[in-house]
């Protein structure tokens, strides 16, 4: 991984106390961080009687059957597909909307600009619990009045999730676009591009790290949301966030299957995140943290 | 919107060359100008409409609902439900009665939880970021490892913690009781008083990488020359951290602490996944408490009133915080 180079405190050699405390601290912290990951992995390879009795660090026998069983205990494949559709669509829409908004704020002076940015950011503060019920009623009423099914549909969930990541995305992209030289889009304007042409041909490519960062953030937000998914979905549109609790409501909890399923649903986001994390750091460095 | 007469409306900050110059062809001038004035609003329109639909309209309805008497019968047609003026609020803040007392208790639990969690997240994140500022072997790998809790979907992560906290077959009791023998008997972690610590542990595990990420990003903006100058003056590494690194992080920390505070205070997912629909007393976080008041007891008006109180409190804290920190910043610059 190409390191985003931190400024080196080069002329000062690290004293021994620093090196020792660093080794100790980082070791302990890694243990804390990785403990649940280890439990997830090792338990997902155990037969059921192994996870029902006292905890054991190592599996008595290793089996892959939990990974086969998770698909039939609950309709995991359907939940997976729903999550993929919802999170994917919400992410694409949210990033496009955020790019437009951030471009307007960073490149134009207009009346109401400050009101807009403050309002958008302050929605971050709203407790979800305050607008959960009104939103649910709003969706039901829109459905009754117009026939557009928002409640219980993937569309309603997509709409909801894309606004969840929007404020932070807009904020981060405004910061990032400030770091893209204005000369670039002015040159494009001179060359005869319209403002939108300048945005798509010049500004978006130059702001790619920021946009990737925002994409990762939006996808993770949508993939992990629980509260609204539990109210706004039904049996056919249920996402992983709610569906995964299906293993735990049985009379017997299939802990090995729960762990296997948790691992399976985590792999896409964790892999994507770790691959793209350097963009996230770069995006945050240029954007939010300025 | 296009009628906004502001002279600055729609003008790019720096005049771009010919297109906005003083002498475009008169025939093209009017539509061009209209488009330029309208353009920023047009670009903002999708974001505005979405925020309006999903955040602002429901929030205003929520505030209206808090003044109504809502049950499952009047809910569908909530506009016609009877007004109750401030009754819902009166009940919520009547600390002599059960409802108010429980709300106050829940408020204190949430404050304690939030302060503890934010403090620990900040400490771990800052320490890790500073220790990892200079390159060493395996730093890239370690950074990836540290970001795993943040990348994991919250339900997968919290379910794993629920398994670890199980009374009979969990890892925590196995280590504490069977292997180390520090507890008599196996304690319960997800019910009773211990659940507070379980909640803090999971919350810190989940959120500290965010602090790490932000501080790591913030450290990249510290000018290298500062360290070189300090090194020439003969100050050691610990002194450099104290006198250069930490002060340089102050603006980053101001945002970071506020964001962590708001997220932790409003966090619903962690306690809900950890405890289910009703949390144990010692970990009865406001978001769960309000959820329970609305959806389990079907008293929506009262739940809405509690949410509004929560929002007012957050507004007050955020406002005060921003005021204090920006004044502090000005004072330092003066």
TrEMBL record, chain A:
The chain crosses the membrane at residues 20-41, 79-103, 115-138, 158-177, 198-220, 254-276. Its main location: membrane. GO terms for biological process: transmembrane transport. Residues 80-276 form the ABC transmembrane type-1 domain. GO terms for cellular component: plasma membrane. The keyword Nucleotide-binding does not apply. Pfam families: BPD_transp_1 (PF00528). CDD domains: TM_PBP2 (cd06261). SUPFAM superfamilies: MetI-like. Keywords: Cell membrane, Membrane, Sugar transport, Transmembrane, Transmembrane helix, Transport. It is found in: Cell membrane. It is a multi-pass membrane protein. This is Transmembrane sugar transport protein. The lineage of its organism: Bacteria, Bacillati, Actinomycetota, Actinomycetes, Kitasatosporales.
Automatic annotation (TrEMBL), chain B:
The chain crosses the membrane at residues 38-57, 107-132, 144-164, 196-219, 247-265, 304-324. It comes from the Bacteria. Gene3D superfamilies: MetI-like. Keywords: Cell membrane, Membrane, Transmembrane, Transmembrane helix, Transport. Residues 107-321 form the ABC transmembrane type-1 domain. The keyword Ribonucleoprotein does not apply. Residues 1-31 are annotated as: Disordered. Residues 1-11 have a biased composition (Low complexity). InterPro entries: ABC_transporter_permease (IPR051393), MetI-like (IPR000515), MetI-like_sf (IPR035906). It is a multi-pass membrane protein. The keyword Nucleotide-binding does not apply. SUPFAM superfamilies: MetI-like (SSF161098). It is found in: Cell membrane. Belongs to the binding-protein-dependent transport system permease family. This is Sugar ABC transporter permease.
């Amino acid at each position: 991984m190409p390191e985003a180079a931190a400024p080196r405190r080069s002329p000062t050699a690290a004293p021994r106390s620093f090196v020792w405390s660093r080794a100790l601290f980082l070791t302990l912290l890694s243990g804390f961080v990785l403990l649940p990951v280890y439990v997830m992995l090792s338990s997902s390879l155990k037969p059921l009687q192994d996870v029902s009795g006292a905890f054991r660090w190592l599996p008595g026998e290793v089996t892959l059957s939990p990974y086969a069983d998770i698909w039939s205990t609950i309709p995991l494949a359907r939940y997976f597909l729903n999550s993929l559709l919802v999170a994917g669509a919400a992410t694409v829409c949210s990033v496009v909307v955020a790019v437009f908004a951030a471009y307007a704020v960073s490149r134009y002076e207009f009346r109401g600009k400050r009101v807009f940015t403050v309002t958008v950011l302050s929605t971050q503060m709203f407790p979800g619990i305050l607008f959960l019920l009104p939103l649910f009623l709003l969706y039901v009423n829109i459905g009754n009045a117009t026939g557009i099914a928002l409640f219980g549909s993937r569309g309603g969930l997509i709409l909801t999730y894309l606004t969840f990541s929007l404020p932070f995305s807009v904020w981060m992209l405004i910061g990032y676009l400030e770091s893209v030289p204005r000369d670039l889009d002015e040159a494009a304007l001179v060359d005869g591009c319209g403002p939108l042409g300048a945005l798509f041909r010049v500004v978006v490519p130059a702001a790619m790290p920021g946009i990737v960062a925002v994409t990762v953030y939006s996808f993770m937000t949508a993939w992990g949301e629980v509260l609204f998914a539990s109210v706004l979905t039904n049996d056919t549109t249920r996402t992983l966030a709610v569906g995964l609790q299906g293993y735990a409501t049985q009379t017997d909890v299939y802990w090995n299957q729960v762990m296997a399923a948790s691992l399976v649903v985590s792999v896409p986001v964790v892999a994507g995140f770790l691959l793209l994390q350097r963009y996230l750091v770069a995006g945050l460095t240029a954007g939010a943290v300025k | 919107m296009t009628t906004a007469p502001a002279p600055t409306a729609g003008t790019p900050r720096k005049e771009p060359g010919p297109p906005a110059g003083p002498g475009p062809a008169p025939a093209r001038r009017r539509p061009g100008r209209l488009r330029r004035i309208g353009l920023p609003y047009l670009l903002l329109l999708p974001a505005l409409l979405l925020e309006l639909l999903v955040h602002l309209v429901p929030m205003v309805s929520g505030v209206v609902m808090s003044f109504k008497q809502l049950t499952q019968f009047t809910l569908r047609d909530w506009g016609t439900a009877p007004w109750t003026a401030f009754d819902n609020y009166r009940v919520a803040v009547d600390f002599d009665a059960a409802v108010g007392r429980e709300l106050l208790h829940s408020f204190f639990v949430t404050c304690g939880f939030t302060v503890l969690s934010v403090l620990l997240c900040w400490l771990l994140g800052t320490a890790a970021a500073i220790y990892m500022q200079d390159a060493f072997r395996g730093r890239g790998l370690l950074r990836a490892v540290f970001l795993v809790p943040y990348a994991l979907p919250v339900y997968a992560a919290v379910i794993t913690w629920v398994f670890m906290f199980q009374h009979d077959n969990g890892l925590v009791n196995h280590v504490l009781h069977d292997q180390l023998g520090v507890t008599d008997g196996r304690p319960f972690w997800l019910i009773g008083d211990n659940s507070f610590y379980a909640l803090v542990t999971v919350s810190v595990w989940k959120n500290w990488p965010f602090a790490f990420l932000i501080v790591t990003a913030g450290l990249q903006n510290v000018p290298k020359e500062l360290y070189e100058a300090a090194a020439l003056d003969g100050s050691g590494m610990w002194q450099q951290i104290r006198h250069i690194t930490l002060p340089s992080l102050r603006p980053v920390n101001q945002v970071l602490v506020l964001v962590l505070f708001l997220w932790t205070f409003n966090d619903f997912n962690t306690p809900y996944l950890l405890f289910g629909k009703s949390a144990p007393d010692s970990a009865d976080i406001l978001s769960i408490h309000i959820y329970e008041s609305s959806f389990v007891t079907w008293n929506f008006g009262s739940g809405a009133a509690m949410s509004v109180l929560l929002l007012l409190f957050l507004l007050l804290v955020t406002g005060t915080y921003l005021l204090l920190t920006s004044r502090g910043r000005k004072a330092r610059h003066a």
